[in-house]
Amino acid sequence: MPRPNDPIDLRLASKVSSLYYDQNLKQQTIADRLQISRLKVSRILKQAREQGIVRISIAFPDNNFVDLEALLEDQYGLKEVLIVDSDASGDSVNNRLLQRQLGIAAAGYLHRTVAEGDILGVTWGTTLQAMVESMQPKHTRNLQVVQALGGVGPPEAKAHATDISRRLSQLLDSTLTLLPAPGIVESTETKKVFLSDRRVKSALNLFNEINTAYVGIGALHTNPVLTRDNYEISSVLRQEILESRAVGDIGLNFFDEDGKAVETRFKDLVIGITREELLNVDTVVGIAGGAEKGPSIKGALMGGLIDVLITDDQTAQKLHKSPAV
């Protein structure tokens, strides 16, 4: 059977075909759900038939997880789930490979769904770095990228929020609003000083206008902020977070296994998008995978903090077996 060269297009073709033929959804409904045009849905269905993906029933290729994606979408009330293949060994090499696969899937989703007039918010982290590194340039009109978290870690780091925002803006040929402030400050007094800055205010005022946010989902024991050699928070504050009910964070907004906010003094020292602002974003795309991220991804799902999940097949299987309550 002839196959398209691009595995992302193959996944999308299978998903559109399943929604249309198996679930009997109208083409406009599919277009709205996947954030593509109705014309593109029609074209994909035609290509799916030409390529042999659609016969009498849907013929899913290897390493395609459309059924599992649909189950998770229904289980957690998500707009979309994208699942990539993973390796069971879990060593550092394969972790890097998984990160790259997640980045490719996230880049494909962004490339497919970005639209004129969008205001995109981005936080920080290695999965977002992988997404930007996998992005193909795309000319857009009237698009804006907003740095939704102040700088965390060394400014020269590729996973730094400023670098990710700038590179994404360049790839999309969009306007850019940076948040010229550290992500973590030493005191509430210092935070007040930064918040009074005109440029910082300008960025913060855009948070309520972000319609799509791309975020990593952090686990406690892999969060660079919580390592002993990190200079950005005190050992006392670090211990307070580690001893709390927190299982993970999005943009340094920590939450427990039910997705509820974990209140610590740290919250008052962060300059970035708040939990409340995040919940007001139309589409929050969470990108995370690997065994160590399972509890934090589940917490984010339980709290309704994300609308689109991009993860790996093993994590997805565990999330499906773990009931949503």
Q: Helical proportion?
A: 40-55%
**Overall pLDDT, averaged?**
89
What is the CA-atom radius of gyration, in angstroms?
20 Å
Placed side by side, the strands forming the largest sheet appear as 1-10-9-5-2-3-4
Shape summary:
globular
- What fraction strand? 5-15%
Number of helices: 13
- Measured between the Cα atoms of the first and last residue, the distance is 42 Å
Description:
The model is unreliable at 1-8 (pLDDT under 50). Helix 2 (27-34) packs across helix 3 (38-51), helix 4 packs across helix 13 and helix 5 crosses helix 6. The protein is α/β, with parallel strands linked by helices. It has a 7-stranded parallel β-sheet, sandwiched between helices. The longest helix is centred in the N-terminal third of the chain and has 22 residues, at 92-113. The termini are far apart. It is built from 13 helices and 10 strands.
Describe the protein's topology:
Layout: H1 7-22, H2 27-34, H3 38-51, H4 66-76, E1 80-84, H5 92-113, E2 119-122, H6 126-134, E3 144-147, H7 161-172, E4 175-177, H8 188-195, H9 198-206, E5 212-216, E6 218-219, H10 235-242, E7 248-250, E8 253-255, H11 275-279, E9 283-287, H12 294-302, E10 308-312, H13 313-321
Parallel strand pairs: 1-10, 2-3, 2-5, 3-4, 5-9, 9-10
Antiparallel strand pairs: 6-7, 7-8
Helix pairs in contact: 1-3, 2-3, 4-13, 5-6
